[in-house]
Design a protein that fits this description.
The protein has 133 residues and is of the alpha+beta class. The protein has two helices and five strands. The relative contact order is 0.12.
């Protein structure tokens, strides 16, 4: 993935392109009280395939994108909401199984618990684990 320093302004999306790889451009855009990181397929300006919501801190989002390897990691770290489905799957995800464990809708790894009280994904994960014992 090629990181852009500084990020490139995108007038169409009114946001900033942080990076690009062989399949997508990664931009952040303002979304109310959040920032949304979006994955746009090359040549597409009408829709994005994947999105992740972060606190309103552009430097935080840029740091998570810089630390992310989209070839081996399904999703970047640090987000608190995934508004798109299906979940992104890295093409070489078997190379980094630690980063590709199941997550809840709030971005937490299910095996570690969720920071959100009564997270439906965490509750379901707990029920399934209990049923297996």
């Amino acid at each position: 993935m090629k990181l852009h320093e500084p990020p490139i302004h995108d007038a169409h999306w009114e946001g900033y392109e942080l990076a690009a790889d062989t399949t997508h451009r990664y931009l952040w855009i303002w979304m109310g009280s959040n920032i949304r990181l979006i994955a746009l397929p090359h040549g597409e300006d009408g829709y994005y395939e994947h999105g992740w919501c972060y606190p309103r801190d552009p430097e935080l989002v840029a740091g998570h994108v810089a630390a992310w390897d989209p070839d081996t990691q399904d999703e970047p770290a640090g987000w608190h909401k995934r508004p798109t489905h299906p979940i992104r799957r890295a093409p070489q995800r078997d190379a980094d199984p630690e980063c590709n464990r199941p997550r809840c809708v709030h971005g937490c790894y299910l095996a570690e618990g969720c920071r959100t009280i009564n997270c439906r994904d965490e509750l379901e994960y707990g029920r399934r684990a209990q049923d297996e014992t």
